[in-house]
Write a structure and sequence with these properties.
Layout (H helix, E strand, L loop, with lengths): L2 H45 L1 H10 L1 H21 L5 H19 L2 H4 L2 H24 L8 H21 L2 H30 L7 H29 L4
Helix pairs in contact: 1-2, 1-4, 1-9, 3-4, 4-9, 6-8, 6-9, 7-8, 8-9
């Protein structure tokens, strides 16, 4: 009669490890979002809209430079996370979140604060609902990964083309498609994290690195979903 409780304890331990890993992923992601939100709104409140607007125009190339640094950090985390300590990966994630707060702060000059806040709430509800769906669905979402990646590449190409066309209709279509793609990616990445959690050993270096990567994936899904929603729902100043 001994094996039954032993197996039960083993199962309970595995469930606790998975739950701990998933909680850590969402905790890191939330920390990154709060850091981004705080840094993005701080200069607008401290300096005021007029002073901040002139500062943005004066240092616009610095903003572009920071965007390049952000891109390099994401690439670095994506390809080198397994080769660096987990704590360094976490610090790079926080650095990326902080830089993103700086580069996103001009949205407060473009859109009203009320519409930014309401869009953030809408995005939060959509993200939470989609993430829950990714956890509970029995459908294997991995087969959609390739299609979502191709759709994302097509979206980027369309955005570049629209820089020259400057079409309002195309902007609206791109924003709508962007929301749909990142809703799909949120469900896909959530299921990916759920599957990952089952193979992670609690407290291990591999688990810590995987939690940072999971947080980065969900963070990027949320931020991009929010920006595309803001283009659709945001009221301009």
């Amino acid at each position: 009669m001994e094996p039954v409780p032993v197996m039960q304890d083993s199962y309970t331990g595995a469930v606790d490890q998975s739950r701990s890993f998933i909680v850590k992923v969402y905790m890191w992601m939330s920390l990154g979002l709060f850091l981004t939100a705080g840094i993005s709104i701080a200069p607008y409140i401290i300096l005021g809209p007029n002073t901040y607007e002139s500062l943005i125009y004066q240092y616009i190339y610095v903003i572009y430079g920071l965007m390049i640094v952000e891109f390099l950090i994401v690439l670095g985390l994506s390809f080198l996370l397994n080769k660096i300590p987990a704590v360094l990966g976490f610090l790079l994630f926080l650095a990326y979140s902080a830089l993103n707060g700086i580069t996103l702060s001009p949205i407060f000059l473009i859109y009203t604060g009320g519409s930014i806040f309401s869009t953030f709430l809408v995005c939060g509800m959509m993200f939470a609902g989609t993430s829950v769906l990714g956890f509970i669905t029995k459908m294997d979402l991995t087969k959609f990964g390739g299609y979502l990646s191709m759709a994302l590449i097509g979206l980027v190409v369309a955005m570049v083309v629209n820089l020259f066309l400057n079409s309002n209709m195309m902007t609206w279509i791109i924003s709508l498609v962007g929301v749909v793609i990142f809703v799909g990616l949120t469900a896909y990445d959530t299921q990916k994290i759920k599957n990952m959690a089952g193979s992670m050993e609690a407290g291990s270096e591999e688990s810590k690195k995987a939690s940072v990567m999971g947080a980065l994936m969900l963070y990027l899904d949320f931020i991009n979903m929010f920006l595309f929603l803001l283009r659709l729902l945001g009221k301009r100043n």
